[in-house]
Amino acid sequence: MAGIKEECGVFGIYDLDGGNVVPSIYYGLTALQHRGQESCGMAVSKTNGEIGNVQFHKDLGLVSEVFRKENLEKLEGDIGVGHVRYSTTGASVAENAQPLVLSYIKGTLGLAHNGNLINTGELKWELIQTGAIFHTTTDSEVIAFHIAKERVHSKTVEEAILKTAKKIKGGYALVVMSPRKLIGVRDPYGLKPLCIGKRGNTYVLASESCALTSVGAEFVRDVEPGEIVTISQKGISFDRSLTTEKHAHCVFEYIYFARLDSTMDGVKIYDARIRGGKSLAKSYPVEADLVTGVPESGIPAAKGFSEESGIPFGFAFYKNSYIGRTFIKPTQKERESSVHMKLSVLESVVKGKRIVLVDDSIVRGTTIKNLIRMLKEAGAVSVHVRICSPPFLHPCYFGTDVPSNEQLIASSNSTEEIRELIGADSLGYMEIDYLEGMAGGLPLCKACFDGNYPMEIPEELREK
Q1: Catalytic entry in 8, 210, 388, 396
Q2: Exposed, middle or buried, 448 (CB in 10 Å: 0-12/13-18/19+)?
């Protein structure tokens, strides 16, 4: 898949027995690397030490690049938060890497945030009016400053976070570290994921259950939409005063974002993608000799298509895992050629065969067009494309980096026109009515497909 960037990933941990959590944060962030590959960081503290003594390290790059042995040895604490990031608001620069660490009159907090707010402007104006800040660049900074401002007039940090959460609007998952508490917050619609794990006397909060597994923690449950979870020496407690009946889970967690071995809101991600492929086979059957998927995102759906259709499944591409990230290439021509560097066709598998090529989405169409050409150059008789999502027609305002309308191929072309542009012999998209079934019946946000946003989008944000 190309064009849609992953969401951010958050991780928080508190060892109530006082053990060092730095290695666990490292492994947890590594497990969440798929959610953000531009920058990462961690902040840790000792709850039995000096209040506000927070150690942190963050920078641009992958987890394995940012955290070397010499960095990790300088960090120690029994409570901490971590973050992997791609930029939705704010430039991709080291200064915008998270977690944010903010010192204020009542202490220090560390904050890791996944998502986007839709009322950032009015929240910034409130801070400016009260003299709390003069300038911020990201939603995450706005949230952190509001918590700090509210903390001055609140008995507890939980109270300050609740007051802030009542003001912010959008999709978000927060993990906040105060000197003595670890707190997780999930937006009332459940747009962004967050779950709870436990390992002995250690509690973990993470964007996905795969991160819990990576540190040996047992999955306890998902944080409910609108729920605030507080972990302290007293144990774990919950505040559900923000919960509502209306939920809208991000559909793209189940189509693409979440890792295959994660379970999210009771749905196994692998099973969801298999179901998606089966729905495609029912909706758009075709006579073919082989079903294959675009690595890695299209493979589970291709397996489901194969199971439903009876057409054999096979691997048509070899993926070179050692090629660097394409966004560091200096020119557009080099970025396009990197598709050939990363993927090569297994000619003996596809030669003389009618191929069904399955992927999760088409954004601009450039990548799938190149892959179709590569298959045909390798001797494929025909290539029938099946996409495990409806056409992208609308932008996302909640933290998924869907490009603007003019960059979405489906916004200005019919399905038949797209088929011709990419060179496919046939093209079928997932029917929008099948999405809930794919995600186990969960209520979903599908606004990028149908324009029905779960909350009102301010006019200044809407594309003209």
Answers
A1: 8
A2: buried
